[in-house]
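[agent] plan:
  1. take the single chain provided in the ticket
  2. run structure prediction with default settings
  3. attach structure tokens to the ticket
  4. add a short note for the reviewer (M.T.)
[agent] executing step 1
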Amino acid sequence: MNIFNFAANQQIAQVPRKDWMPELEKASKRYHVIACWAAIIFDPVFAVTDFINFPDHAPLLLAIRLCISWIILCGLLLGKKLNWSTHVIVSIPFITISLQNAFTYSLTGPENLLGHSLNYMALLVGAAMFVLWPWRYSLIIVIISIGATAYFVLNNALLTWDGFMLNGGLLLFVVALFMMVLIQTRYNLSVREIKARIALARSREEIRAQAEEIRSMNENLEAIVQKRTLELERKNKALEEYAFINAHKLRSPVASILGLINLMSKTELKGDAEPIMQHMVKSGDTLDEVVRSITQAIEKGEREPYRRTPEIEN
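[agent] step 2 finished; step 3 output follows
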């Protein structure tokens, strides 16, 4: 199992960025668009809390919220038309609402610090749920938010930095860090899932290619076997024809020669004729043995070389 996991991790790690980045863009686009529409709709709705917490500044805050919703909507439509990265599009509501919440600290008093910080945390929790990008984007926006928040808190004569930290400020920073960790965790899991899906698709393609190659090899092998079979059939037919020639056409003159030798051996021979006759008898028997051996080998289908028979002496 460990070897299998190692091999799978190796395949996933080998997926290049140019392959998985477009898939990540498609996956994150849906979440980022939802986040933008949620900001467009719900940011003005939260103006209800402004009439409770900041009755004197509620009209100003409502105007700011409506302007931010309009900016987010324009960014969403323009980004779609100009094919912007969804990272850029979703950063618009994130930054603008963060600046809006930071500005509100310039209007609040000590009694509303905790409630306002909780409202600010809602933005960070929502971002953690919908935003999907590398950690450096989160870090940039958190630094901008911290800088803007510190500026408006320090410029509010009713607030002190210690009071702000004790009444939700410290918790706000902790939630911001938690948001960064959660976004990065979701980002890593999404990238790994996309890489695994691409690696799996490639493995299936390789398996199909190998299967096609094997099928092609099998077809070629079948053609080779058929060709070889035809060759063997032609050779067998040739051997059968040779066996017929050997058994009938060759055997007949050999039998005639042996018959003549037999007749001659029964006549009275004088001088050098007798050793010549003995030699002819021996050679005839040897020739007869060779013909018989060839016939038997063909009939039995032997492939081993025949035992070499003694050469016929001159």
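[agent] step 4 note for reviewer: The first helix runs from residue 2 to 13.
[agent] ticket updated
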